Design the sequence.
């Protein structure tokens, strides 16, 4: 059973309406988009951007199906950070944490994340998901200083291990 398909277009994420109906995504693209681009609630000791007091998060995390389950990532906390090595380590940690449920729910056998600075004000996350049911998937995410965008040299497409597009 698949998820409702999400599509990335012109800097925003929306439902893919396909050919007049709602498209179904049988890959991990939608799961990865929701996991990485939904704002997870900040931990009590997380420094907040702009010294604000909004810890964000999804209200549904108050009543998780399984103890400790939370949706989204804390990548939003990096919005105003300087380009320093510890920021790369935090980005990798936040992305792995957001995708950890894939391993816990036996959807993936491993998730690896590598962060790098690709230009001034933006970091890139290369994410490889080794699934338990088919080829590994890779996703590259560009995280600019203001928000997150699903753009890269492959156009934000999830690729299989050989580099062939699984879903555009």
Sequence:
């Amino acid at each position: 059973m698949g998820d409702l398909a999400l599509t990335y277009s012109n800097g925003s994420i929306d439902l893919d309406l396909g050919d007049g109906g709602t498209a179904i995504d049988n890959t991990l693209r939608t799961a990865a988009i929701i996991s990485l681009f939904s704002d997870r609630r900040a931990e009590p000791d997380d420094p907040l951007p702009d010294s604000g007091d909004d810890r964000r998060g999804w209200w549904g995390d108050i009543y998780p199906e399984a103890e400790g389950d939370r949706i989204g990532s804390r990548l939003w906390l990096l919005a105003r950070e300087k380009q320093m090595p510890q920021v790369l380590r935090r980005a990798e940690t936040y992305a792995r944490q957001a995708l950890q449920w894939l391993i816990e729910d036996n959807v993936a056998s491993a998730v690896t994340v590598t962060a790098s600075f690709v230009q001034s004000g933006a970091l890139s996350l290369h994410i490889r998901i080794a699934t338990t049911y088919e080829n590994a998937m890779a996703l590259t995410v560009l995280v600019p200083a203001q928000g997150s965008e699903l753009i890269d040299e492959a156009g934000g497409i999830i690729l299989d291990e050989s580099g062939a597009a699984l879903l555009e």
Notes: The chain has a mean pLDDT of 77. Helices lie at 29-37, 85-104.
